[in-house]
Fold Putative transposase.
Amino acid sequence: MQLRYNYRAYPTPGQQIELARAFGCARVVFNDGLRLRRQAREAGEKYVSDGELSRRLITEAKATPERAWLGEVSAVVLQQALADLNTAYRNFFASVTGKRKGRKVALPRFRSRKDNRQAIRFTKNARFKVLDNSRLRLPKIGDLAVRWSRTLPSDPSSVTIIKDAAGRYFASFVVQTKDEPLPETDSEVGIDLGLTHFAVLSDGTKVTAPKFLRRAARKLKRLQQDLSRKQKGSANRKKAVVKVARAHARVVDTRRDWQHKLSTTIIRENQAVYVEDLCVTGLSRTRLAKSVHDAGWASFTAMLECKAARYGRTFARVDRFFPSTRMCSDCGRINNKMALNVRSWDCPCGSHHDRDVNAAINVRAAGQADLNARGAHVRPASVPAAHREAGTHPDAARSTRSVEGISVL
């Protein structure tokens, strides 16, 4: 399994200038390649191959006065920018032909220096190196100071230097690791995700929704108001933009840290985990959009799926149209639709149900039935780790607030 380990980096002012130059060169090569392929398509010419792009936009461009400054950065950075362009085109073609599942992928767009995220990638060909003094040596940039919170499990195959909207720098390593199966347990759990309670487990455990965005709403409102009063193009406006970005980054980092702890606890304590396949995209178009985005269900289920594959657990999704809420977990009767304010109900068979606990029990039963119908509890294949799976975020809140029914600390 490939995992991505993120560490906070602290470049010097001179290294920040070199990184900005590398970001700009990679962005120019990407945009030149996208422009060349669009022009070829509009002119009815054949698709420009990857090798042709590399020859014309890097090798030959360095010999021209207009692009001579491309030689000031590592050639690997430029090659990886074209590799990103090729990946974007392959994803688009796979989406158009139906080979790629999920939402439709659009054509690549031009990159801008005003984008919230700037990134460059170094592979082994660039000969980057982690030094004995805990610094990261990058070609034509220098020795970068990195805050190492843990050791890398193996030699990294690549490293990506990222600058986010808050002005923070990260070094993201891709490493190959082996699976780490946990001792088997007899416990299996179904999870019903919601807004009042973030997760309700089939054993009756309820995890209160932390609502990190709602808690930070007052501070974000004040910072947004300060930003709106600044004159466009001024230095003070740029400072206000960074302050808003830092506040949002803190919310994101705190939510991710909390979800990692909760997902790890659930995976360690249960041999099989079943969740409902929610349509987050559809729910984000309703009046509950802000609360849905604040909950972060998609990222949480992705963590569960990744960690289940890594630690030898079973993970399965139940069809989103399965009537888990309306079905009686005792007799199987499907009752009429219920309003959201109905939190408990009685079945004609005499059973009294808590709405969410009953749904979680039905999700577990449906997941077990689906796996049995396919033969057995087969361990799923390994999947790539989610973004920042093993990342470290020093700016995240140091303490995680307690939640009802389960400890994630």
About this structure: The chain has ten helices and 14 strands. The chain has two domains: 2-176, 188-373.
